[in-house]
Amino acid sequence: MSHRTSQRGFTLIELMVAVAIVGIVCGLAFTVNAESGGANPESASQQVAALASLGRMRAVSTRHVQRLEATPSMVVLWESDQLGSVPATAWRAVKTVRLPSSVMVWSASASVLAAGGNNPTQNASLDFFTDFATDGSSTGATLFMTNTKQSKSFRILMYRYGDSYARTGW
What we know:
Layout: H1 12-36, H2 41-62, E1 64-70, E2 74-83, E3 91-98, E4 103-109, E5 128-132, E6 141-147, E7 153-158, E8 164-168
Antiparallel strand pairs: 1-2, 1-5, 2-3, 4-6, 6-7, 7-8
Protein backbone atom coordinates (compact mmCIF):
# COMPACT_ATOMS: atom_id res chain seq x y z
CA MET A 1 0.00 0.00 0.00
CA SER A 2 1.37 3.35 -0.94
CA HIS A 3 0.99 6.33 1.30
CA ARG A 4 0.73 9.68 -0.21
CA THR A 5 2.11 12.50 1.85
CA SER A 6 0.63 15.97 1.61
CA GLN A 7 2.66 18.35 -0.51
CA ARG A 8 3.77 21.73 0.68
CA GLY A 9 4.43 24.71 -1.57
CA PHE A 10 2.98 25.97 -4.84
CA THR A 11 2.68 24.39 -8.24
CA LEU A 12 4.37 25.94 -11.22
CA ILE A 13 1.03 27.07 -12.67
CA GLU A 14 0.09 28.85 -9.43
CA LEU A 15 3.41 30.72 -9.45
CA MET A 16 3.01 31.70 -13.11
CA VAL A 17 -0.50 33.07 -12.47
CA ALA A 18 0.76 35.11 -9.50
CA VAL A 19 3.64 36.56 -11.56
CA ALA A 20 1.24 37.43 -14.41
CA ILE A 21 -1.11 39.25 -12.02
CA VAL A 22 1.76 41.24 -10.50
CA GLY A 23 2.99 42.12 -14.00
CA ILE A 24 -0.42 43.39 -15.08
CA VAL A 25 -0.82 45.50 -11.94
CA CYS A 26 2.68 46.99 -12.39
CA GLY A 27 1.98 47.73 -16.05
CA LEU A 28 -1.20 49.59 -15.16
CA ALA A 29 0.54 51.53 -12.40
CA PHE A 30 3.37 52.67 -14.69
CA THR A 31 0.94 53.68 -17.44
CA VAL A 32 -1.13 55.83 -15.08
CA ASN A 33 2.04 57.35 -13.61
CA ALA A 34 3.46 58.19 -17.05
CA GLU A 35 0.27 59.97 -18.11
CA SER A 36 -0.01 62.03 -14.96
CA GLY A 37 3.73 62.76 -14.80
CA GLY A 38 3.44 65.77 -17.10
CA ALA A 39 0.29 67.12 -15.49
CA ASN A 40 1.99 70.10 -13.89
CA PRO A 41 3.71 73.07 -15.51
CA GLU A 42 7.09 72.28 -13.92
CA SER A 43 7.47 68.85 -15.48
CA ALA A 44 5.94 70.04 -18.76
CA SER A 45 8.41 72.94 -18.95
CA GLN A 46 11.29 70.54 -18.28
CA GLN A 47 10.05 68.30 -21.10
CA VAL A 48 9.92 71.28 -23.48
CA ALA A 49 13.42 72.41 -22.43
CA ALA A 50 14.69 68.86 -23.04
CA LEU A 51 13.01 68.89 -26.47
CA ALA A 52 14.78 72.16 -27.31
CA SER A 53 18.11 70.65 -26.22
CA LEU A 54 17.36 67.61 -28.37
CA GLY A 55 16.71 69.91 -31.34
CA ARG A 56 20.09 71.61 -30.89
CA MET A 57 21.92 68.26 -30.61
CA ARG A 58 20.10 66.83 -33.63
CA ALA A 59 20.94 69.89 -35.71
CA VAL A 60 24.66 69.41 -35.05
CA SER A 61 24.71 65.61 -35.37
CA THR A 62 22.45 65.22 -38.43
CA ARG A 63 23.47 68.46 -40.20
CA HIS A 64 19.78 69.23 -40.76
CA VAL A 65 18.18 72.43 -39.44
CA GLN A 66 15.73 71.67 -36.62
CA ARG A 67 12.67 73.80 -35.85
CA LEU A 68 10.78 73.95 -32.57
CA GLU A 69 7.13 74.94 -32.98
CA ALA A 70 5.13 75.99 -29.92
CA THR A 71 1.34 76.25 -29.79
CA PRO A 72 -0.78 76.62 -26.64
CA SER A 73 -1.42 72.86 -26.41
CA MET A 74 1.75 71.23 -27.80
CA VAL A 75 5.37 71.66 -28.82
CA VAL A 76 6.73 69.91 -31.93
CA LEU A 77 10.31 69.38 -33.09
CA TRP A 78 10.62 69.43 -36.90
CA GLU A 79 13.57 68.47 -39.13
CA SER A 80 14.40 70.08 -42.47
CA ASP A 81 14.58 67.88 -45.54
CA GLN A 82 17.70 69.72 -46.73
CA LEU A 83 21.25 68.98 -45.60
CA GLY A 84 23.24 71.92 -44.21
CA SER A 85 21.91 75.46 -44.06
CA VAL A 86 19.95 75.22 -47.31
CA PRO A 87 16.37 76.53 -46.87
CA ALA A 88 13.93 73.70 -46.24
CA THR A 89 11.45 72.64 -48.89
CA ALA A 90 9.62 70.35 -46.44
CA TRP A 91 9.64 69.53 -42.74
CA ARG A 92 9.37 66.16 -41.00
CA ALA A 93 8.01 65.87 -37.45
CA VAL A 94 10.63 64.33 -35.15
CA LYS A 95 8.95 64.47 -31.73
CA THR A 96 5.77 65.97 -30.29
CA VAL A 97 5.11 66.91 -26.66
CA ARG A 98 1.36 67.20 -26.09
CA LEU A 99 0.71 69.26 -23.02
CA PRO A 100 -1.85 68.08 -20.46
CA SER A 101 -5.13 69.98 -20.44
CA SER A 102 -4.09 71.65 -17.18
CA VAL A 103 -0.92 73.18 -18.73
CA MET A 104 -0.49 75.62 -21.61
CA VAL A 105 2.11 77.67 -23.44
CA TRP A 106 0.94 81.15 -22.47
CA SER A 107 3.12 83.24 -24.76
CA ALA A 108 6.53 83.40 -26.44
CA SER A 109 9.23 85.95 -27.15
CA ALA A 110 11.91 85.99 -29.83
CA SER A 111 14.28 87.35 -27.18
CA VAL A 112 15.98 85.44 -24.37
CA LEU A 113 14.45 86.99 -21.25
CA ALA A 114 16.78 85.61 -18.57
CA ALA A 115 15.76 88.13 -15.89
CA GLY A 116 12.50 87.48 -14.08
CA GLY A 117 9.66 89.94 -13.63
CA ASN A 118 8.17 89.61 -17.13
CA ASN A 119 4.44 90.03 -17.61
CA PRO A 120 3.54 88.50 -20.98
CA THR A 121 0.02 88.76 -22.33
CA GLN A 122 -1.72 85.54 -23.30
CA ASN A 123 -1.52 84.57 -26.94
CA ALA A 124 -4.37 82.07 -27.48
CA SER A 125 -3.52 81.65 -31.18
CA LEU A 126 0.22 81.17 -30.56
CA ASP A 127 2.19 79.49 -33.37
CA PHE A 128 5.82 80.31 -32.56
CA PHE A 129 8.98 78.94 -34.22
CA THR A 130 12.60 78.71 -33.10
CA ASP A 131 15.24 77.31 -35.44
CA PHE A 132 18.42 75.41 -34.52
CA ALA A 133 21.19 75.73 -37.11
CA THR A 134 23.68 73.01 -37.98
CA ASP A 135 26.45 74.85 -36.09
CA GLY A 136 24.46 74.51 -32.84
CA SER A 137 23.25 78.10 -32.71
CA SER A 138 19.58 79.05 -32.50
CA THR A 139 17.43 82.08 -33.09
CA GLY A 140 17.00 82.29 -29.30
CA ALA A 141 13.64 82.53 -27.57
CA THR A 142 11.66 82.40 -24.35
CA LEU A 143 8.49 80.34 -23.91
CA PHE A 144 6.12 81.15 -21.05
CA MET A 145 4.16 78.23 -19.58
CA THR A 146 1.55 78.10 -16.84
CA ASN A 147 -1.25 75.98 -15.47
CA THR A 148 -4.83 76.90 -16.28
CA LYS A 149 -5.27 78.62 -12.89
CA GLN A 150 -2.08 80.63 -13.47
CA SER A 151 -0.88 79.74 -9.97
CA LYS A 152 2.41 78.29 -11.24
CA SER A 153 4.44 79.80 -14.06
CA PHE A 154 7.65 78.78 -15.78
CA ARG A 155 9.74 80.12 -18.63
CA ILE A 156 11.93 78.13 -20.98
CA LEU A 157 15.05 79.97 -22.06
CA MET A 158 16.61 78.92 -25.37
CA TYR A 159 19.94 80.70 -25.65
CA ARG A 160 21.43 81.55 -29.04
CA TYR A 161 24.76 79.84 -28.31
CA GLY A 162 23.99 77.58 -25.39
CA ASP A 163 21.53 75.15 -23.96
CA SER A 164 17.88 75.46 -22.96
CA TYR A 165 16.66 75.76 -19.38
CA ALA A 166 13.33 75.79 -17.55
CA ARG A 167 13.12 78.49 -14.86
CA THR A 168 10.50 79.19 -12.21
CA GLY A 169 8.44 82.34 -12.68
CA TRP A 170 8.12 84.73 -15.58
